[in-house]
Write a structure and sequence with these properties.
It is built from 12 helices and 13 strands. The chain is of the alpha/beta class. Among the domains are: 63-93 and 160-238 and 358-377; 245-352, Rossmann fold. Strands 1, 2, 3, 4, 5, 6, 7, 8, 9, 10, 11, 12 and 13 form a 13-stranded mixed β-sheet that branches. Helix 5 (126-134) crosses helix 10. It starts with a helix and ends with a helix.
Length: 379
């Protein structure tokens, strides 16, 4: 699924890669004017909530939000998984809320329950389906209105805390802790608001975060400079450095699990339909894989049989030993691949969010957010 924002970003990237024409300058001017109007709207909206003119509704349990300031690609899904696992480690019953981007219908839906039942991804969205796969027996509930989704989760499941995936701009729901992801390789999304750039809000919004999670901090060119910029934008907000650690390779069509080192020195063909394919490519290169070719699709792309046939043709032409994709893509590819079993060796790279600095700060923030709920459940 390609949104107007992503089409705009691609058009601007094409402009930036060539000598701008008069039409290019005109297009940039239109987008800059539109971004100015967007700034007025989002600033007024944030002020209305901060001033109490519009109110956020509270749920009966604490809500930990994993959000970001830019459109897509910061690594929220691995971060959400990591936060759920940390909270479960404190003895808490945890549920997950998210919009369910790209799903069929808009009503509140249950992607996963306590019994291990997982809804088909088209009904709940690929991110919800991936969370359900990675977090066995953790309730995952989707809905555009996250308050209604949260209320349904609490009605159906005995929960101590809810983790909200991608809700930093969803001010209608009160959050007890905002963890904001910042991609260290592109911290401010080009520095422009939508639709000129990828910023959902002005960078000053970071001041309301409980902590900033710097994702891909190991891939940043100058992490110290990025942190100085963030300290200036959001003084006093702690930084937690993280990286996306390649954790496993699995067979797309079977239960096989392999060490990430399997691809070292081997010709691989990379397929992805994610917001930032360059980060996936960089991870595979860092693992020592020889990139025989890459084939990016739009973010959340619903793969068809024709897509898979094209992938296989291009992998064969590139003389690749394996096709490798991401976990989120695997959710959308698996059913299609099942119709063409064994056509080409297909691997899925799984990554985990690893905290490299600030772990004690993160754990303290989570404990403060949930209070004594974990202790109440302990024997």
């Amino acid at each position: 699924m390609t949104t107007p924002t992503k089409l705009t970003a691609r058009a601007l990237a094409a402009i930036d890669s060539r000598t701008p024409t008069l039409a290019d300058h005109l297009w940039r001017g239109i987008l800059t004017a539109a971004a100015a109007g967007y700034r007025v709207g989002v600033t007024a909206r944030r002020w209305s909530f901060d001033a109490g003119i519009r109110g956020a509704r509270r749920l009966a349990v604490p809500v930990v939000c994993v959000g970001n300031l830019t459109v897509g690609g910061t690594g929220k899904t691995p971060a959400t998984i990591a936060m759920v696992q940390r909270l479960k480690g404190q003895g808490l019953a945890v549920g997950v809320l998210l919009r369910g981007y790209g799903r069929e219908g808009g009503a509140v839906g249950v992607a996963a329950d306590l019994h291990g039942h997982i809804a088909p991804w088209p009904q709940v969205g690929d991110e919800a389906a991936l969370l359900a796969e990675r977090l066995p027996r953790v309730p995952v509930v989707v809905g555009a209105d996250r308050f209604r989704a949260g209320r349904e989760a609490l009605r159906r499941f005995p929960l101590d805390v809810l983790v909200l995936d991608d809700g930093f701009q969803h001010r209608q729901l009160h959050r007890d802790l905002d963890l904001v992801m910042v991609d260290a390789t592109d911290p401010l999304g080009g520095g422009h608001l939508l639709p000129r750039g990828r910023l959902r809000e002005p960078p000053s919004a970071l001041r309301s975060a409980g902590a900033l999670l710097l994702s891909r901090s190991d891939q940043a060119k100058d992490p110290a400079d990025i942190r100085r910029t963030l300290l200036r934008l959001a003084p006093g907000v702690p930084h937690i450095l993280t990286r996306h650690r390649p954790a496993r390779l699995t067979d797309l069509e079977g239960p096989g699990i392999h060490a990430p080192s399997l691809v070292r020195g081997r010709r691989t063909f990379l397929v992805s339909g994610i917001a930032r394919p360059a980060a996936f490519h960089a991870t595979m290169t860092a693992l020592g894989a020889t990139l025989a070719g890459t084939l990016p699709f739009p973010d959340h792309h619903p793969y068809s049989r024709a897509d898979l046939e094209r992938i296989i043709r291009e992998a064969e032409a590139a003389r690749a030993e394996w096709i490798v994709t991401t976990e989120k893509d695997a959710v959308r590819l698996r059913e299609v691949a099942a119709a063409l079993p064994g056509r080409y060796p297909f691997l899925v790279l799984g990554v985990d969010l690893e905290v490299t600095e600030g772990e004690a700060i993160l754990d303290a923030l989570l404990r403060r957010c949930v209070g004594d709920r974990g202790a109440e459940r302990s024997p």
